Amino acid sequence: MFMRTDLFHRISSSRSYFTEDKTMDRQLIQRAAQDILQSKKTIAFTGAGISVESGIPDFRSAEGLWQKYDPEEYAHIHAFYSDPDKVWLMLKDMFTLVMTAKPNPAHIGLAELERMGLLSSVITQNVDGLHQAAGSKNVIEFHGSHRTLSCLKCPTTLDGTSLKIEDLPARCPRCSSLLKPDVVFFGEPIPPKAQAYSFKESKSCRAVLVIGTSAIVYPAASIPIMAKEEGATVIEINMEPTPLTGQISDYLISGSAGKIIPAIVEEVRRQR
Ligand code: NAD
Ligand code: ZN
Fold first, then answer.
1. Which of 76, 107, 131, 143 is catalytic?
2. How far apart are CA 71 and CA 61, in angstroms?
3. Which pTM value belongs to this model?
4. Ligand number with the minimum distance to the CA of 180
5. How far is the CA of 158 from the centre of ligand 1 (A)?
6. For residues 182-215, b (16+ Cβ closer than 10 Å) or e, as one string?
7. What is the pLDDT of residues 35-45, one digit of tens each?
8. Could you read off the pLDDT of 197-238 as tens digits, one per residue?
9. Ligand 1 site, CB within 6 A
10. Among 23-27, 177-181, 238-242, whose mean pLDDT is lowest?
11. What is the pLDDT at residue 10?
């Protein structure tokens, strides 16, 4: 994956322009519910923002993990290979967050939409496993997962959830080489099956909920663009505008995912 760094910096520094809309836009929530009910196939595309209310900071947080570790420095595969001990400091902190976080009402709302037969899949850029923890079944982990680790030298894969923080950085039980969490670092390719399935879902859906992503990490950010090209309705849910807003998105519902998703689910139930 790679990041559009020019946009990254522009968006990071434009934070002061952001004013949170305190009142949820009822009309847009009704419109989203209607779009979901009318669509033959709806998918969700989620980013770090959906897990912020579970206590996992996104890349843009004013505080937290990414103030301590610049993602562009620590999240690149070259950094991992050249100084794994340094990168493992960040991975250990992320591991602790991911292993203790609980799904929030946004994750739970998406799982509910799936159970209602109204959501085909969740394509997530997140590595925290919170969609599955909330009960979503069809989850595509576009950037891998923190829950498993693989050996860099042999085919061994371990379940990370059974490891304690003191065990990290862990060594391969078979060959003693260093293990790497199965997350996609910048500079690494997307797992081919996840990419192929995601692209298929995005090309065949009629509506896509784009939730809590800055939409600047590629190729993930091409998912809503592909959907739009095939005529799907693109519904964006975010605290602030993104490069998709007004270009690719049909509309943006401003605010927190943890409030907006449950409101949409409630409205879907009401209109159904
Ligand atoms: P990002 O940090 O670039 O952007 C997060 C977006 O979420 C921003 O647009 C922000 O305005 C929005 N947001 C923040 N809080 C929100 C809320 N409560 N409700 C709705 N929107 C909210 O994240 P990205 O686009 O996912 O790209 C960063 C990359 O780093 C991805 O690969 C991502 O998976 C990874 N990452 C993952 C996690 C995780 O697994 N939880 C955490 C940090 C980064
Ligand atoms: Zn090994």
1. 143
2. 12
3. 0.92
4. 2
5. 26
6. bbbbbebebbeebbebbbebbeebbbbbbbbbbb
7. 999 999 999 99
8. 999 999 999 999 999 999 999 999 999 999 999 999 999 999
9. 47-49, 51-53, 56, 58-60, 125-128, 143, 212-214, 217, 237-240, 242, 256-258
10. 23-27
11. 38
Task: Retrieve residue 260's tokens.
Answer: 């907006």
Ligand 1 atom index nearest CA of 53: 18
DSSP code, position 16: G
- What's the 60 CA to ligand 1 centre distance in angstroms? 7
Q: Which ligand is nearest to the CA of 255?
A: 1
3-state secondary structure of 119: coil
Structure tokens at 81: 């290979």
The neighbour count for residue 96, using CB atoms within 10 Å, is 13
143 tagged catalytic: yes
Which amino acid is it at 81? Y
Q: Is the dihedral of CA 51, 56, 59, 60 positive or negative?
A: positive
Q: How far is the CA of 136 from the centre of ligand 1 (A)?
A: 19
Q: Domains in the chain and their CATH numbers? A: 1-56+103-143+190-272 (3.40.50.1220), 62-100+145-183 (3.30.1600.10)
